[in-house]
Amino acid sequence: MTIESYSFAGHTCQITICNNDVLSKLPSLCGCRVVIVGDATVLAHYGAKIAAGLREKGASVHVLAIRPGEKSKNIATFTRLIKKLAAIHADRETIILGLGGGVSTDIAAFVAATYLRGLPLWLMPTSLLAMCDAAIGAKSALNLPGGKNLVGAFYLPERLYIEPSFLATLPPRQLAEGMAEIAKIAYICDEELFAKLEKMPTISQDMDRDIIERAIELKIALVSADNFDKGKRQLLNFGHTIGHALELAKKELSHGEAVAIGMVLAAGMAHKRGILPEADFMRLKNLLARLNLPLVPPVSFKRAARYLLNDKKRLAGQVRMVLPQKIGHPCMDEGAYTLAVTPAEIAANWP
Ligand SMILES: NC(=O)c1ccc[n+]([C@@H]2O[C@H](COP(=O)([O-])OP(=O)(O)OC[C@H]3O[C@@H](n4cnc5c(N)ncnc54)[C@H](O)[C@@H]3O)[C@@H](O)[C@H]2O)c1
Fold first, then answer.
1. Gap between the Cα atoms of 330 and 313, Å rounded
2. Which positions of the chain have pLDDT values less than 50?
3. Does ligand 1 lie within 6 Å of residue 143's CB atom?
4. Torsion of Cα atoms, 142 then 145 then 150 then 153, to 10°
5. CATH code at 42?
């Protein structure tokens, strides 16, 4: 991997790519306190091993468990965690270590961003999605009853450990979700990575490390070019406008599944506008199908439209969407990375 660190708003995150050796990559921690924040499933797999490794390096370690799943990413969990930090007298040197999928890394990062106005944050993402997406880019978040990620802060971890061997225990559905996000960034930014995904002999937890590293590099490039979501970073929303609406309209769909369908519909619209060649559209559908991701919305346009028009990307009756021009290249509109799309156009393309 060529990138060993990246900077964000004047801060630097050191990235360590591991090869089943994360513990030996830890620095000396004599006199340090580390609070591990992770979900119960991930802690059952890796919590004791990581805690023992940290202790061996000299740290005193506390482990704070949260319930697995998106439902935990809320104010109640946050309140419980910060009360625990107060109870153990965490100080400004106490390191918060987020260990887990995107839910754990988002909550741990928000706790670190806010407790005592900022504690050192380290992340050890364990899902493919968290390794390539959630743990990169300095966003932390909590959900509110009114919507996802409505509370949050930009907060960069000081250290990020990418240990692909954690994926050995990741369930296949979560693996496919991570693959959806990698396919997304490849389709919109990097034809070479997309071709590499197409050539993968099998889709398994034993992922090609080069693919993970390239996906991380691509996300870093986008967030470095646009720290606060005003421009190029919006490319990460490819498939998300419709995907987000589908997720709300059909609770059984996972985020990655909804994004996969959103990408197919967005690419379909680009093809119909004459922007995206047929062959490139087919390659997207073929890859997503191979990744065991759905291609067709499970609800009618009418059902999804309510959520689509509530989307934060709505502007005066129009939705702004990232549309691909060819694999690896987004379509630009007078310097903007998103194009105006009317609900009628989306409806006309709904299968
Ligand atoms: N901050 C950001 O920029 C950003 C970007 C994308 C997504 N996100 C957030 O990430 C979250 C989704 O992340 P996710 O898909 O990782 O969800 P998650 O954290 O809920 O993990 C998914 C499931 O996989 C399990 N799991 C994770 N790693 C495992 C492992 N190695 N072995 C066994 N089980 C494991 C977890 O226990 C959980 O049940 C969402 O809340 C989303 O909003 C944030």
1. 17
2. 313, 315
3. no
4. -30
5. 3.40.50.1970
pLDDT at residue number 336:
93
Say if ligand 1 is within 6 A of residue 123 CB: no
- Atom 10 (ligand 1) nearest CA: 102
Question: How far, in Å, is the centroid of ligand 1 from the Cα of 5?
Answer: 23
State whether the beta carbon of 135 lies less than 6 angstroms from ligand 1.
no
- pTM score, two decimals? 0.96
Please state the domain count of the chain. 2
- Token pair belonging to 306: 């309510």
CA–CA distances in Å: residue 217 to residues 56, 185, 191: 32, 10, 14
Domain-terminating residue out of 146, 169, 192: 169
**177 CA: nearest ligand 1 atom:** 15
Q: Residue 205 has what pLDDT?
A: 84
Identify the CATH number of the domain in which residue 285 sits. Answer: 1.20.1090.10
Residues 71 and 9 in one domain: yes
- pLDDT for the residue 230: 87
Tokens at 35, concatenated: 């609070």
The reply to whether 144 and 221 lie within a common domain is no
Residue range of the domain that includes 266: 176-349
